[in-house]
Amino acid sequence: MTxxxxxxxxxxxxxxxxxxxxxxxxxVERQPCEQAEGRVLxxxxxxxxxxxxxxxxxxxxxxxxxxxxxxxxxxxxxxxAGAPGERLERGxxxxxxxxxxxxxxxxxxVMQEKVQRVGDEAVIPADIPAGDNVRRRGRxxxxxxxLLDAGTRLDAAALGHLAGQGIVEVDVHRRPRVALLSTGDExxxxxxxxxAGQIYNSNRPMLKSLLERxxxxxxxxxxxxxxxxGTRDCLKEAAEVADLVVSTGGVSVGEEDHVKAALETxxxxxxxxxxxxxxxxxxLGQMEGPGGTPVRFVGLPGNPVSSYVGAWLFLRPxxxxxxxxxxxxxxxxxxxxxxxxxxxxxxQHYMRVRLAxxxxxxxxxxFSDQNSGVLSSxxxxxxxxxxxxxxxxxxxxxxxxxxxxxx
Length: 407
Ligand SMILES: Nc1nc2c(c(=O)[nH]1)N[C@H]1C(S)=C(S)[C@@H](COP(=O)(O)OP(=O)(O)OC[C@H]3O[C@@H](n4cnc5c(N)ncnc54)[C@H](O)[C@@H]3O)O[C@H]1N2
Ligand code: MOO
Hints:
Catalytic activity: adenylyl-molybdopterin + molybdate = Mo-molybdopterin + AMP + H(+)
Largest sheet: 6 strands, mixed
CATH architecture of the largest domain: 3-Layer(aba) Sandwich
Shape: elongated
Organism: Halomonas litopenaei
CATH topology of the largest domain: Molybdenum Cofactor Biosythetic Enzyme, Chain A
Strand content: 25-35%
CATH superfamily of the largest domain: MoaB/Mog-like domain
Structural class: alpha/beta
Function: Catalyzes the insertion of molybdate into adenylated molybdopterin with the concomitant release of AMP.
Number of helices: 8
Number of strands: 28
EC number: 2.10.1.1
Bound molecules: ligand LQZAQKY5, molybdate ion
Strand order of the largest sheet: 7-4-6-5-9-8
Pfam families: MoCF_biosynth, MoeA_C, MoeA_N
Distance between the termini: 36 Å
């Protein structure tokens, strides 16, 4: 590659700044918690209740006043979970079950395995500390305390936490609507017979899966013919219904690559050609939707690995920004020892690696064929090892890795 060619490739940081420039979170909507998995909170949630709402037993056993430990006590009460608490007098104990409300006056619970039952009495061991096996009211959450921050993506634990407050609806950002366009006359849908020169569309289901994982709703998919008018028509249709238009293929320099020209007739091409591998001809731009609303455009290169890596590096932070989710701005990073040797030219290389975790540390095992047409390299890829431009890596060197087992 000549130096003038290299100089025309935009560095990753410039591309991300261009991508995210002026992007604001989408409007807020109220959503039933049952349908809010993966959605991003638009406002903080404050706890209204103590959790647990009352002192209760952590064990099936016997509740008592700890001063009465070491004695044989009459079993005066039976407290099942869900029953209201009663008063326990000194010199007595209560049969209690896990989650049962601690009787008033009792301050500890001894598990039943440590108790000898003799008729209506229980022989309690002596060494029972006050407070043992009692889960205090408000130990998990205190009423009035912050429960979840704005920008939290609702996962299993967060949904459980909301339900623990009796909450059934939350304010979340609207899911970004995405149109997914597949360019290339050689690309056909799985299910149809394959003629000479054709290949199946692997990018569409792959990207749909990633887009949904990143919180988007794919509202339109189209196969775009390799012609200026066909490409323009599909882009126009997409901009009518989507917040983000993603295309694959047709962004390189060939005569059948119509995406950039079509985009420029409808909107703006903000950036094209990056100093990254894979993904060099990636194109970023903007169009207008109904009423002049901004519609973002990301043109991913057609090679399946370029599309896959481009989705992690660009679609994820963009969808995060559209949903107000700061934790999606960057992939988690970790250092690992390479098991490979490589060297880079002017482009930063994002190598697909499997990570092996051992007590001595983490190793990055590179897939043997890192060509951007080889989608098998993504199958077991836990991470992308980032090899900066003009860099030599030898086995054993530390490489920075971007963790992909996330949303
Ligand atoms: N003369 C040059 N040629 C190319 C350059 C260059 O700088 N100069 N760059 C190369 C690089 S790097 C890439 S990446 C590709 C990207 O080109 P396009 O984005 O225009 O992609 P296409 O040519 O349309 O397709 C590339 C490749 O991927 C296959 N493909 C496309 N879509 C799909 C799909 N949905 N499912 C499966 N496979 C798909 C397509 O058949 C091609 O084989 O350009 C290089 N060329
Ligand atoms: O940028 Mo291309 O993705 O190197 O093959």
